[in-house]
Design goal:
Strand order of the largest sheet: 2-3-4-1-5
Distance between the termini: 63 Å
Mean pLDDT: 87
Radius of gyration: 33 Å
Length: 926
């Protein structure tokens, strides 16, 4: 809306109070976020103006969305950052480079949008060191998509910075935007306040009956009250809106107001109407561009009549009184008139300084297919992609399809548009454009790309095994075309079957592996990727004896592969989950798991790939669970969940469930297990059902609820999956022995022996030896337990070392060897108690009591009161990292780091970071 003196805000005491609270918290040094939601004309923009006017001694920056089909990546974000642009050069290099590429001031790899978000967070935080910063975003539903996503990321990561953000969102258009942030609903004025507003604008005395009827007709919408009473006397209103206007009062209020604005246009001179249409077609509001376009249209830019009618304000930028005015002007014009002003705007736009806007206006001016226009849009789309604007790339390519005259380039562009829409998380639009592409001639390579895209769309909707045949078909087409994408697509096919939990059958992982090996697909260009496919295919097609050694060769390549570009790093991060699943469940190699997960976390941090960092953290957290460092695992899981929430992704439940199971937290696990089970059934992720079997097996064995453990572990074994079978077998052997189901235990032991034989790792040999010990007697059992302890120790699987001490001690006590039993039970109790594995610790405590030993329960130290985030920040600070480095590492601001450290100092009873190394070291060894 047009800026000006604030009107009396009738009936908005509650809303103003909420904004005053936001400003008060900001001045006190805290972060605040608020989303104002309501229909058009309800007063959201005026409330933002109120906040700006009240923001004394605060730096205020604005972004205003404009309804337009044009999608210029990061345009709105640039508005927000413009006052602080000089600070970009002071940002950490990865953030600085990402933001400069996004704003088009530098050339480089397309930046991760979350790294751009971190750069904006750092920029605003540093600006707030001088004065608090207030970010106001009006009509957020019309921001370019990547700007809105970036600002939403910043809003979710604010914690302890003197930065506040207030968004105005029109409903219902923006219903899906900014979900989960604090909301202030803006509704129609109460009748009394609406009556006061109306009375303040109408000349003459307004009868109460007339006022009440008019207020009711406008539903308390302030803009409607002001616009429909504009220039009308009390006497005119007495006969109703129908009598004083040709518009009528039927339909939604916003539509009636827009029609009222449209009605005023007819009284304006033709040249003024054309000038307004030109302004409506140019969403940026560039006054100089508008003057040049007016000259091209051979009209005098006389805005006085439009200003007098209260429709527009010509300044820098040009601003309409309300977005509904722009809508009325543009949509009310004849198509040929719209094309004429777009043609003029294209001619007036500098092709060197602003080629993308010129290309868009040229496309809107086209009245039929035009290859030159289509090529210009395709080039603009490529520039958008280079800046990280995937949504803009998709929109530009889609428009290019519409104006492409020839079938071959039309099909190619439709395919590229479909792929861009899929990357921008718009699978429905991707599906529609894929169907368009299918109608036109495509090269064999493009046909393969289309097949793979359709497989990816199907797999994204449901993790069922229906996508696997589509991936295999695409891979075969890539192979026939001699494309290096073939092997990558075979891996996708195998991955799809793994998620679906299908190993056997015509659509299973084994069939995909056989097809990959028989395909003769060319090299992907990455030795590590090729070795991984060969290893996984050998594992599935030939079994562990052949597959595990092949996987070990792939590990060395994956661990040491040189990654010279961002694209190569992203590709490596996409391969890592397949490799990790194979190493965890078939190589039984915790050290390999650690090496791959650690590298994945480091690479994701280095390039700011916040989309792939959470799963990498989850895998790394799993390593620390098996190392017995539950605190470090919790820190990683907490960070993964926080980043997933900030980036709009669902949290990863698996690691949290495994941790809860080892801790014996039945209540925590129960709700998550049921939710995960429902999700698995709904999405067809049978592999997740296998995971639930293993997890509940650990949980119930720890709680000594062996019948439940046996049933749960059996379900983990019986699902036709790639993962968790071996781990579930370990749980099933223990539970079945405890339940006296020895035949079941022996059958599971036989399968476990077959799975672990080829691995030859300490973890594999330990699992096999301990499971044999549970079914053995006398000296044989004694030797097997000791072997298991030694092998688990060699493999670094600390939780299983502790568990084997527990089982060995239980066996010794039942054999009346109490002194020896105490030794192992005491070790188990100390280890589990130190880990905070409470269920297993309680099992060990009860066994020790049965031997006649008194057990002292360790009291938790001050460090146990730290949250996972506080613990992580404290650890990094103890390692000597500065606040800035910690912030860059954890994707939070230095202010938030300092805020966490102050809480850490209070909880640990220290006054500075110098004391952290000693206190944290004592906590770990205590």
């Amino acid at each position: 809306m047009i800026a000006g003196p604030l009107p009396d805000l009738f009936g908005r005491h509650h809303e103003c109070e909420a904004l005053d609270d936001l400003l008060a918290g900001l001045r006190d040094g805290g972060s605040r976020v608020l989303v104002l939601r309501g229909e058009a004309g309800i007063g959201k923009s005026v409330l933002l103006e109120y906040a700006a006017a009240r923001a004394v001694r605060v730096d205020v920056t604005w972004a205003r969305g404009v309804e337009a089909d044009m999608e210029l990546p990061y345009a709105s974000l640039h508005q927000v950052c413009a006052p602080f642009v000089n600070g970009i050069e002071e940002l950490p290099q990865p953030q600085r480079d990402a933001l400069r590429v996004a704003f088009g001031t530098a050339v480089g790899d397309p930046p991760d949008r979350f790294l751009v978000g971190l750069a904006v967070l750092t920029l605003l935080t540093r600006a707030s060191e001088t004065r608090p910063v207030l970010v106001l975003v009006d009509d957020a539903q019309w921001l370019d998509q990547v700007s809105l996503q970036t600002l939403e990321f910043v809003a979710r990561r604010l914690l302890a910075e003197p930065v506040a953000m207030a968004f105005a969102v029109r409903d219902p258009e923006g219903r899906s935007a900014l979900g989960g942030l604090p909301v202030l609903p803006i509704k129609g004025l109460e009748p009394a306040a609406a009556g006061e507003l109306l009375a303040s604008t109408v000349g003459g005395r307004l009868e109460e009956r007339v006022r009440d009827r008019f207020v009711a007709e406008m539903h308390g919408n302030p803009l409607a009250l002001l616009e429909f009473s504009r220039g009308r006397s009390a006497a005119e209103l007495a006969y109703g809106v129908d009598a004083s206007s040709s518009l009528g009062v039927q339909g939604p209020v916003a539509g009636r107001v827009e029609r009222d604005f449209a009605g005023r246009l007819g009284a304006l001179p033709a040249a003024t109407r054309t000038l307004l249409l030109t302004a409506a077609a140019e969403p940026v509001g560039d006054a100089r561009l508008l003057i040049r376009a007016a000259a091209s249209l051979d009209i005098t830019p006389d805005a006085a009549p439009a200003k007098a009618a209260g429709l527009i304000e010509f300044g820098e930028p040009v601003r309409f009184r309300h977005p509904l005015v722009r809508s009325a002007v543009y949509h009310g014009a004849e198509p040929e008139d719209r094309r004429a002003v777009h043609r003029a705007l294209a001619e007036a736009t500098d092709p060197l300084l602003d080629p993308d806007r010129r290309a868009w206006h040229a496309a809107q001016a086209a009245d039929g297919p035009d290859e030159e226009v289509a090529a210009g849009l395709e080039q603009a789309a490529d520039r958008a992609r280079q800046r990280g604007g995937i949504a803009a790339e998709a929109v530009l390519l889609e428009r290019a399809v519409e104006v492409t005259p020839d079938p071959w380039p039309r099909g190619r562009r439709a395919l590229a548009a479909a792929e861009a829409h899929f990357s921008a998380a718009a699978p429905e639009r991707a599906t529609e454009l894929a169907a368009v592409a299918d109608l036109y001639p495509l090269s064999p390579l493009d046909r393969a790309r289309l097949a793979r895209l359709r497989a990816r769309i199907l797999f994204a909707r449901s993790r069922s095994d229906e996508a696997a045949p589509l991936f295999l078909d695409a891979a075969a087409q890539f192979t026939a075309a001699g494309s290096p994408l073939a092997r990558e697509t075979y891996l996708e096919a195998i991955s799809a079957t793994i998620f679906a939990g299908r190993v056997h059958g015509p659509a299973g992982a084994r069939a995909a592996a056989v097809a990959a090996r028989a395909s003769g697909a060319p090299s992907s260009g990455s030795k590590a990727a090729d070795a991984l496919l060969d290893g996984v295919a050998a594992l599935l097609a030939d079994g562990c004896d052949t597959g595990v050694p092949a996987l070990r060769e792939a590990l060395d390549l994956l661990e040491h592969e040189e990654l010279d570009t961002r694209e190569a790093t992203v590709r490596w991060l996409l391969l890592a989950p397949v490799a990790l699943e194979a190493f965890i469940h078939y190589a039984w190699d915790l050290h390999a798991w650690d090496a791959l997960a650690t590298r994945a976390v480091r690479l994701a941090r280095d390039i700011g790939a916040l989309g792939t960092l959470p799963p990498a953290l989850i895998y790394a957290g799993g390593v620390h669970i098996h190392y017995g460092d539950f605190a470090e695992a919790a820190r990683m899981i907490d960070e993964a969940d926080a980043i997933a929430a900030a980036t709009g992704h669902a949290p990863h439940k698996y690691a949290a469930l495994v941790l809860a199971a080892w801790r014996g937290e039945a209540d925590v696990a129960a709700g998550i297990v049921e939710e995960a089970r429902e999700s698995a059934v709904r999405r067809g992720e049978v592999s997740l059902l296998g995971a639930m079997g293993y997890i509940q097996g650990v949980l119930f064995n720890g709680l000594a609820r062996y019948e439940e453990a046996m049933e749960a572990a059996r379900s983990g074994i019986e699902h036709d999956g790639f993962n968790f079978t071996g781990l579930s077998l370990v749980e099933h052997v223990e539970a079945a022995v405890r339940c006296g189901e020895l035949d079941q235990a022996r059958a599971s032991l036989a399968r476990l022996t077959e799975l672990t034989r080829a691995a030859g790792s300490g973890w594999a040999r330990g699992a096999s030896a301990r499971s044999e010990a549970l079914l053995a007697e006398g000296d044989e059992a004694d030797g097997l337990y000791r072997t298991a302890i030694e092998e688990f120790g060699r493999g670094g699987v600390v939780v299983e070392v502790a568990r084997t001490h527990l089982l060995y001690g239980e066996w010794l006590r039942r054999g009346q060897r109490r002194a020896q039993a105490r030794e192992h039970l005491r070790t188990a109790h100390e280890m589990f108690d130190g880990m905070r594995a409470q269920a297993f610790a309680e099992r060990a405590r009860r066994e020790l009591l049965a031997t006649g030993e008194h057990v002292t329960v360790r009291e938790p130290g001050p460090a146990s009161a730290l949250t996972p985030q506080e613990s992580q920040v404290a650890s990094l600070a103890a390692d000597g990292m500065t606040n800035a480095r910690i912030g860059a590492e954890l994707f939070i601001s230095p202010h938030t780091v300092e805020w966490h450290l102050r809480k850490v100092y209070t909880k640990l009873g220290i006054s500075s970071r110098r004391a952290l190394p000693e206190v944290l070291s004592a906590a770990r060894t205590g």
